[in-house]
Write a structure and sequence with these properties.
This protein has 307 residues and is α+β, with helices and mostly antiparallel strands. The chain has two domains: 194 residues, Regulatory protein AraC (Jelly Rolls, Sandwich), CATH 2.60.120.280; 105 residues, Homeodomain-like (Arc Repressor Mutant, subunit A, Orthogonal Bundle). The protein contains 14 helices and nine strands. Strands 1, 2, 3, 4, 5, 6, 7, 8 and 9 form a nine-stranded mixed beta sheet that branches. A hairpin with a 2-residue loop joins strand 5 and strand 6. Helix 12 crosses helix 13. The protein is globular. It starts with a strand and ends with a helix.
Amino acid sequence: MNVSRIFEHASAFPVRPAHTIGQDYVRLGAGRPVSVQLLDPHNEASPHDHVFHEIAFVLRGSIRHRWTDGEETLRAGDILVLTPRCVHAYDRARDCAIANLYYLADWFLGRPSALHVVPGLVPVFFGAALYHDPALPRRLTLDPQGPAFQRLRRELGDLLAAEREDRSALYHEAAFFKILDELTAALRAAAPDLALAGLPPEETQRGLRHLELLAAHRQPFSATAAALAAGWSPAHFARRVGEATGLSPRAYFQRQRIHLVCRKLLASSATVAEIAHEFGYADAAHLNRHFRAWRGLTPMEYRRRYA
C-alpha cells in the first residue's frame, strides 16, 4: 500500500477544460447527495473539471491520468480524491473500469458535527471547501484483492443499488460515510502524517470548530470567543485562521453559515426570508447578497438546481 500527494504547486493545465461535469451529467441534491457511476473508458476523456467533489476508484485494468503538473498510470486498486477545481484527463485505457463517486459537499458540511468524528476525514475529503484548495488530486493505492478494497467495492455496490431502488438520503449518507471511514483508515495506516496533511494545528482547529458551532447554533459571530477557545489573542487567531483557510475569522464564519443555509434550502420548504431570519441575516435581501457572493447564484437558484 502506498499513498502520494501529487506535487505541492500547480501550474496551468496544458489544455483548458473542455467541459465541466455538473448537474446536467450528475444529478445530486437533497434526495441523493451522493452518486456512483460506473465507467468503462475506451476513448480519451478530454480535460475537464467538476462542480462536485469526486472520488475515482480504478476497479480493473489501467489508464493514464493527466493533471496540472504531470501524468501517471493508474491501475486496479488506485483511488483518486479530486476537488472541484482539479482539471484532469484520461487516455490510454487498457481493459479499464472506473467507479466515480460524486458528492455534494454543501449537504454534508451542513452537518459539521458528523464530519469531525473521524480524525483526518475533513482535510482529505472536504478540505477544498474549508481550507486552501491546491486543486490537486490525492492518490491512495490499495491491494485490489485485499480486504479494504473489497469492502469499498461492496459499499459502492450498495450505493448503486440504493440509487436504483430510490432509497432515502439517510441511506445514501450512511453508505457514503462508511466509504469515507474506510478510506481514511487506509490513509492513516499507510501514511499517518499525510492523512492529516492540510489540517490546521490543533489550537487553530479548536477556534475554527468554535466558529462552526456558533453558526450551527445560530449564534452571532464572535472573534473574541473563538480566539479564547484557541487560547490566543484575537489578532494572533486571525493570523492563524488566514494561514489555514485564506480567510478572516468572520469570512470563515460566514462561509460555514452558507453551508448550513445550503442544507436548509434543500432539506426544507422554508422561504428564503424564514431562513434568513433563522440564521441571523437582516432579511432575504441580506442573505441573497451573502449567498451570491459565496455561491455565484441566489438561494432560490441554488434550491432549484439541487432540489
